[in-house]
Amino acid sequence: MSKRLTIRDIANMAEVSPTVVSFVINGKDGVNRHTRERVLEVIKKTGFTPNISSRRLTMKKSFNIGIAFTPEVSPFSNLFFFEVAQGVLDKSKDYGYNIVFTGMEKVNNKYHLPDIVEKGDTDGIVFLMTVDKAVLDALAERNIPAVLVDYHGPTLSVPCVKVNYERAAYVATRHLIEQGHRDIAFLSQNGVPNFYNQVFTGFRKALEASDIMIPLHWICSANDEAQTISALNSIIAGKKPPTAIFCSIDNLAIEAMAYLKTKGFRVPEDISFIGIDDIIMSQYMDPPLSSVRIDKWEMGVQAMELIMRIMEGEKPDDVTICSDNLILRRSVTAPPTQNR
Amino acid sequence: MSKRLTIRDIANMAEVSPTVVSFVINGKDGVNRHTRERVLEVIKKTGFTPNISSRRLTMKKSFNIGIAFTPEVSPFSNLFFFEVAQGVLDKSKDYGYNIVFTGMEKVNNKYHLPDIVEKGDTDGIVFLMTVDKAVLDALAERNIPAVLVDYHGPTLSVPCVKVNYERAAYVATRHLIEQGHRDIAFLSQNGVPNFYNQVFTGFRKALEASDIMIPLHWICSANDEAQTISALNSIIAGKKPPTAIFCSIDNLAIEAMAYLKTKGFRVPEDISFIGIDDIIMSQYMDPPLSSVRIDKWEMGVQAMELIMRIMEGEKPDDVTICSDNLILRRSVTAPPTQNR
DNA sequence: ATGAAAGCGCTAACAG
DNA sequence: CTGTTAGCGCTTTCAT
Fold first, then answer.
1. Per CA to C1' distance, which residue is closest to C11?
2. CB B95, CB B308: distance < 8 Å
3. A82:B82 CB<8 A
4. Which of A115, A134, B119, B170 has its CA 20 to 30 A from that of B241?
5. Domain boundaries, chain B
């Protein structure tokens, strides 16, 4: 186990001072071309890499970016944020940062500052979906940049990577209509009011654009499996069930599809389904689920880029990801021809 | 943005020297009880946390643990290692380490040393499934601990967290037999010879234990979707197709099930399926897939624990995870009663 | 264009 | 039991 080289060793070998070596490593000018090349030569030959702990201390930078999340949106249990995380991870490499994942614990109904920032071990944080105002303030005070991915709340002091869910819902619903459906039910979570509003608005506008009216008990919300089932039961209760169901996220569509199949519905022959997100699982369903694809990986990339721009002193605007990329699979077909 | 406190500030406030503060922070003894309490008091009051960059430099430790993976087993695209990573991450908290994810690029058909170790920015690495001998050697030379998760190759110099795939395959196959099946096909990947051997052995032993013989064209391997399909075609080609298919991993079972359904087979009425792993997706299939559950989260936890033990100078043995936890779902039922 | 020297905040001998 | 001091390996004034 040979001792690691230091900048001083390199300096000796190249017969210059440590300062010069530091300069060339950091690409600063003010170094004679020949000297620079000589140093570069030695560095290449020795495979020298500057000790990162030391740079961290000197530069008061951690070269870490955190991804902070609450249990519900852990990239390790939520397939949406799983892809987002991948995006920020991939992009982080380009900037020479480590990504460190930190779950946020809730104590007394408010989130703790991620321990990674308490330790001063992060230069920026990307929050997934939610964050406490207090946490954001603490970050601002420490002057560490933050961005939010897939945030649904009121405008905030930090830039966000957003999805236009109204648009997505509109596109999904319009697709159903274009396939000939006029009896379309709406199923969404409503735990996050803003999300619900966006999605419902998109749905409503699509229907209105085609002068379609639906019975009110076809508009349902559900935040867990039990609620989904009872919503579904109410939707199919009438004598004339809908021919299609719009679901605000794929997860819900998957749950709903499974349940209605147990109730004897054939998908899509009896009833069509469409969702939003296009999570990895959707393509494996039976039938594979049509969905409005959200490029989650790209959201992660954008988040990382926002962080970097903030670090460079910019004050970037929110970015909104393409929200109308319809993925056609087999869960949607024309409505059954009715004879009554 | 108030300046961060240093150990020196705390020392002044508590009217002791920085050394004493350092001692109490690091839980060393040789500090008077009252002094210790006084210092603790100040620390609590101020919310002081020692600058980690500084400790890193002084102690020559990074307080980072890496998870290294090739593209095929990226936790962000492979649902098996996705759960493993979660386990490592959860456990790392207990030890105060960051987890940093590093993909390994292949250049000239061999993997590069993860950049995180080149930079000296990791105290240990968890490799997912594969690793080059050369990389392991480089690590050994730098004296940084490594463990392997779900490794299938010949014995190595580093401890591994293993699955007993022979046992898992045995349990899965026996379940099929217990349900009355005697016409059972075998489908496995064979990209990793050791894995194939284990799984096949388990399958074979279960059959032999019940004196079951099967036609040889029911023993198939496939490493991508096209191969899966052609394997399946060959399996169902004869006049009397099997009543059940054992698949070496859930992914394969999912693919196979989907394909055979398009061929008009009803699952499980016409043909039963069982897999190994119990990945997150399996429960959402139609029908939900029976599987031998591998506790992937626990594998991650064990990996982290192995790393820690190596750091403490131990020379731990491999650990093998429970491999016979049968999860009964709806993809297996009794074989159709035959009348011919 | 180059070098000397200070200092980042901590830990760990070593003295007392 | 407590304090002094010397680094850890780098970056960055400030001279030259």
1. B58
2. yes
3. yes
4. B170
5. 7-58, 64-163+296-323, 165-293+326-339
